[in-house]
């Protein structure tokens, strides 16, 4: 078996929180999450707001705050990620595009920021080329972040990726603020990147765009992955999809009449120990109160005891 370039295994993340009277409790935000990204793959993570998508990539990048308690393991290229290893990987092998544009340093001109700490002729050349790729005017390099629009700042963040010869791109919502043409161009560039024997993990709210470029879609709900499906399953009228939440997301697409799913995703302590989707599922029964694990089904994976 080929080994995954990135693998998360039984990952759980909780936060130490305090109630009135300084009573401590642990708020579970990610539970029992496993996923792999192989070379030549572009995997898109899709799911509702607050479901834990950014936390997952922060865990991979070692960017969780100190109050986070992490269980489970993350492997890169078959070896467990340690703090020391992450430092090197972040510098050389993995490019991270954060969700927040506040990641840009407000006091440094963006051209310099894109070039990074070791500026030389080469880094300058690369910065100019990536500004061109993302339709950023040459003289924008002299601007400070506060002088940029949201979409411009997003394109500056994207430009940073080209500075290094990385193997893996992790992008947390790379397209907000970009017009459709630029969003598609960016994702197609990621696709080509993956095709060169590298790999990409993107988080996106835009299922339509994800379906155009990804190999697999990982569906996030209430702190875990409920389904991993090959993109082709979304193309045959959604017949091949496995989890009721994925089916609901599919029906909510514009071309499928925007059918909304009633109800809300449970948060933190509202989550029960059984199926995370129990409160909104029309098939829910007594079996769904038990712990539901991910299982293989028809070339994908699902966390639902009724899926067949
Ligand atoms: N430092 C923290 N302390 C406590 N809870 C946190 C912390 N950071 C995130 N959370 C909680 O973790 C959950 C998941 O947050 P996360 O940012 O990963 O969501 P997301 O899926 O990326 O959402 P969005 O699509 O809106 O970006 C949220 O309920 C959030 O309140
Ligand atoms: Ni997020």
Automatic annotation (TrEMBL):
Catalytic activity: Ni(2+)(out) + ATP + H2O = Ni(2+)(in) + ADP + phosphate + H(+)
Gene3D superfamilies, per database record: P-loop containing nucleotide triphosphate hydrolases (3.40.50.300)
Keyword Translocase annotated: yes
SUPFAM superfamilies found in the cross-reference section: P-loop containing nucleoside triphosphate hydrolases
Family annotation (InterPro entries): AAA+_ATPase, ABC_Ni/Peptide_Import, ABC_transporter-like_ATP-bd, Oligopep_ABC_C, P-loop_NTPase
Keywords from the named record: ATP-binding, Cell membrane, Ion transport, Membrane, Nickel, Nickel transport, Nucleotide-binding, Translocase, Transport
Domain of life: Bacteria
A Pfam short name: ABC_tran
SMART domains in the record: AAA
ABC transporter domain span: 6-247
GO molecular function term, any single one: ATP hydrolysis activity
GO cellular component, one term: plasma membrane
Major subcellular site: membrane
Localization annotation: Cell membrane
Membrane-topology annotation of the record: Peripheral membrane protein
Record has Membrane as a keyword: yes
EC number from the UniProt entry: 7.2.2.11
PROSITE patterns the UniProt entry points to: ABC_TRANSPORTER_2 (PS50893)
Example GO biological process: peptide transport
Quaternary structure note: The complex is composed of two ATP-binding proteins (NikD and NikE), two transmembrane proteins (NikB and NikC) and a solute-binding protein (NikA).
Assigned protein family: Belongs to the ABC transporter superfamily.
NCBIfam families, per database record: oligo_HPY (TIGR01727)
Protein name, UniProt field: Nickel import system ATP-binding protein NikD
Native source species: Garciella nitratireducens DSM 15102
